[in-house]
Amino acid sequence: MKGTYKFLEIIFGIINVVEDLIEALAFPAILVLIGLFNDLPWQYYVISISVYFIIAIIIQLVFHFVFKHFEKGFLHSFLDLFDKIFDKRSDDSQ
């Protein structure tokens, strides 16, 4: 059974990575389509997509540092909750 869970974890991990890439690249693709439809020069693409990624990096950094303080307490309580749930399930199955 552990092998099945490990296989599903790998498959869902790959699906999650692909989904995140599609989500991250959807907005730049829209910017490229707008540029193609309006016959804009190459500078539009460089500036718009670069600004998008710079803003995304800044937002990620802000969220990382702002929520780092709150993460410790919340993460600990969630992990305790999951430990209790999975320990009960493993005790029942034995």
Brief summary:
With 94 residues, the protein is mainly α. Helix content is 94%, strand content 0%. The chain has helices at 2-37, 42-93.
Describe the protein:
The longest helix has 52 residues, at 42-93. The protein has 94 residues and is mainly α. The radius of gyration is 21 Å and the shape is elongated. The protein is 94% helix and 0% strand. Helix 1 runs antiparallel to helix 2. The protein has two helices and no strands. The two termini are 14 Å apart.
Question: What is the β-strand count?
Answer: 0
Q: Could you tell me the strand content as a percent range?
A: under 5%
Q: Report on the biggest sheet.
A: none
| Bulk shape | elongated
Tell me, rounded to a whole number, the average pLDDT: 80
Helix content: over 70%
- For the record, give the distance between the C-alpha atoms at the N and C termini, rounded to a whole number: 14 Å
Low-pLDDT regions? none
Going by helix content, strand content and strand pairing, the class is mainly alpha
Global Rg: 21 Å
Number of helices: 2
The secondary-structure element order is HH
Map the helices and strands.
Blueprint: H1 2-37, H2 42-93
Helix pairs in contact: 1-2
